[in-house]
Design brief:
Bound molecules: NADP nicotinamide-adenine-dinucleotide phosphate
Order of helices and strands: EHEHEHEHEHEEHHEHE
Mean pLDDT: 97
Strand order of the largest sheet: 3-2-1-4-5-6-9
Number of strands: 9
Low-confidence stretches: none
Number of helices: 8
Helix content: 40-55%
Distance between the termini: 34 Å
Radius of gyration: 17 Å
Length: about 250
Amino acid sequence: MRTLALVTGASRGLGRNTALAIARGGGDVVVTYRGSADEATAVVADIEALGRRAVALQLDTGEVDAFPVFVTRLRTALRDTWQRETFDHLVNNAGHGDTAPIADTTVAQFDRLVDVHFKGVFFLTQALLPLIADGGRIFNISTGLTRFAYPGYAAYAAAKAAVETLSVYMAKEFGARGIAVNTVAPGAIETDFGGGVVRDNADVNAQLAGITALGRVGVADDIGPMIAALLGEANRWVNAQRIEVSGGQAI
Ligand SMILES: NC(=O)c1ccc[n+]([C@@H]2O[C@H](COP(=O)([O-])OP(=O)(O)OC[C@H]3O[C@@H](n4cnc5c(N)ncnc54)[C@H](OP(=O)(O)O)[C@@H]3O)[C@@H](O)[C@H]2O)c1
């Protein structure tokens, strides 16, 4: 695998799993985290134990004003660790869950969801574009909740839907540089997301398993290796697609 990937929100959950899957496939990874410095350091150690290189950088993807400083720190890390000016692949994964009925959603909840899940993806990708190598790939993480609806996820899912549209426009505009852009839309996965509800609430877990064709909810290992595989040469012609990875949830 040709590759140096940057995975946002890779200290835990799907981002961590994706970073490790990329490393197992022979890639190096820039791992970003918001607050979990120790977990991010552990991911770097795990990648190094696989014989690959990694660095961890702090980044709140909802704080666009911090992006110029992040880009400067990233440039330094690329030069110091890889003697490169660019990286190959960007996985816009970072994000939090926050649920509320539309009637009760506050402006602060809404703004934070949109800042992290849409505005941040837009402007982080814009800021990183000069650092992404021609021929690289971008994956934006969405959710199955853009296809099927659960009460409480309106603002979150609408922000993800915006990213799905954005991904198609990115594919259109970046194609001249050979950069493919796709959306990966996981179904319900057992992680810390949303307070760990899918993993820790047995009733929710069973209900979701019951409406999933393959008969269970997802685990992180259902997602990371799939994204790593999409970075491979065999998938070079996949572009501008929404790829749902849900085991057949709500079909
Ligand atoms: N789990 C699911 O059921 C599911 C389903 C569909 C889509 N998704 C999406 O998949 C992505 C990853 O979710 P997950 O399940 O892996 O969640 P998770 O286990 O809670 O991990 C979230 C990761 O994102 C980071 N993060 C959260 N908010 C951030 C911010 N504002 N800026 C920078 N980093 C931030 C966290 O960093 P810290 O550790 O430093 O806090 C952590 O590394 C999200 O975009 C989520 O919307 C999840």
